[in-house]
Amino acid sequence: MSKAPDHNQLIEAKFSVKLSDPLRSAGAPRFELVIDEQLATRGVTAVFGPSGCGKTTLLRALAGLQPIHSGVLRVNGVAWHDQAGSLQAHQRPVGFVFQEASLFEHLSVAGNLEFASKRAPERLGPEQIEEITEFLEIDQLLPQKPAQLSGGERQRVAIARALLVSPELLLMDEPLAALDQTRKREILPFLDRLKSELDLPIVYVTHALDEVTRLADDLLIMEKGRVGASGPVDEVLTRLDVPRMLGEEAGAVVEGTVTERDSQWQLLRVDFNGGHLWLRDSGEAIGQCTRIRILARDVSLSLADEQASSILNRLPATVIGMADDTDRAMLLIRLAVGDAMLLARISKKSAFQLRLCQNQQLWVQIKSVAVLH
Question: How does DSSP classify residue 118?
């Protein structure tokens, strides 16, 4: 029997939010967000979906910046909103990182951080502030004004500012959306460190699936103000109903460990609970844990282990389920490879020729993989 969840260690979000449109008739909502979820107070919960689906509204409701119409919001057993009342934004122990850093331009970096630290329930000492600035590598930037900083540096200062309020929950609203690819690559390692080194739950809004697959422990996929799917990221991404929301980016995430380096061919071997994969050497150390993204379009199926093939990665698998794709010519196949789950997108003609059926044993051939970190 599975253990019942400890409601004192969850974010219980069961509420609705109505946003009115002044151009519509009185009382007619232009948008309604309905949430009925239990979020983990650990790791990173990514909230993913297209623009206008309610991601930012959800974050603002958690922070107290958007009034909740009805329902309950409890964090670690403490009511932030219920029938008895609602905590104001300044009463909620949250740090908020917006898409734009929104720093005070007339203050130095040190001044921006000093302003934030005054909001903490207990004023942080100089050593704690120094620890945060060193963690985000902004200690050399303290005398500078925001106008002198790059986009990535501004966002690191914004993250430091959010941490200085001693939050119990960190909310991040598309923090990389305003950055170019170079600045994104600069800041992603710091987000990895936030996740791995700080005991702080993070709710991370994004419309970029590569950020989800790199950072998320749990995932909420939203559509039109509703949660279409939620749960651990590896389980959600391989559900047969989810690829229809993700299109060509549908695929699986696999956790593994680097076990071997083939210097002659510039390859790395990564072992996981379903076997091993060879991938391009991008500098990971032997023994390093890594996360791999395998797109459904890069997985082909065979009834035998095709030795005379250019594809290095061939693994035994079992068919777990099948479903129609949005493209009427295609089929989605969910596969168990050891303890890992993969997705394949193949034509219905290929599935007919292979006589695919539930629980069938076959081989997956993985054309390419991407190391995420």
Answer: T
Pairing assessment for the beta strands 70-75 and 218-223 based on DSSP bridges: unpaired
Query: How many other C-beta atoms lie within 10 A of the C-beta of residue 287?
Result: 8
* Per-residue pLDDT reduced to its tens digit, 319-329: 999 999 989 99
- pLDDT computed for residue 249 by the predictor: 85
3-class secondary-structure state, position 263:
coil
pLDDT category at 2 given cuts 50, 70, 90 is: very low
CB 272 within 8 A of CB 255: yes
Of 293, 280, 275, 272, which Cα lies nearest the Cα of 343? 293
Q: 194 with 135: CB under 8 angstroms?
A: no
Q: So what's the pLDDT on residue 371?
A: 60
Please count the CA atoms within 13 angstroms of the CA of 101 that sit on its side-chain side.
23
pLDDT digits (tens, 9 = 90+) for 315-363: 999 999 999 998 999 999 999 999 999 999 999 999 999 999 999 999 9
Q: Reduced to 3 DSSP states, what percent helix, strand and coil does the chain have, rounded to the nearest 5?
A: 25, 35, 35
Q: What are phi and psi of 200, to 5 degrees?
A: -145, 120
User: Angle of helix 109-117 relative to helix 126-135, nearest 10 degrees?
Assistant: 130
**pLDDT tens-digit profile of 50-97?**
888 999 999 999 999 999 989 999 999 999 999 999 999 999 999 999
**What's the distance, Cα to Cα, between the start and end of the chain in Å?**
35
Contact between 218 and 46 under an 8 Å Cβ cutoff? The reply is yes
Six token digits for residue 328: 């009427």
Nearest to residue 87, comparing CAs of 102, 99, 75?
75
| Angle 291-52-46 from CA coordinates, rounded to 5° | 25
- The residue written with tokens 């034509």 in the block is 347
**What is the spatial order of strands in the sheet that 70-75 belongs to?**
29-40, 10-20, 70-75, 78-82, 85-86
Q: What is the mean pLDDT of the chain?
A: 89
Which residues neighbour 85 within 8 Å (Cβ) at sequence distance 6 or greater?
A: none
By the 8 A CB rule, do 198 and 81 touch? no
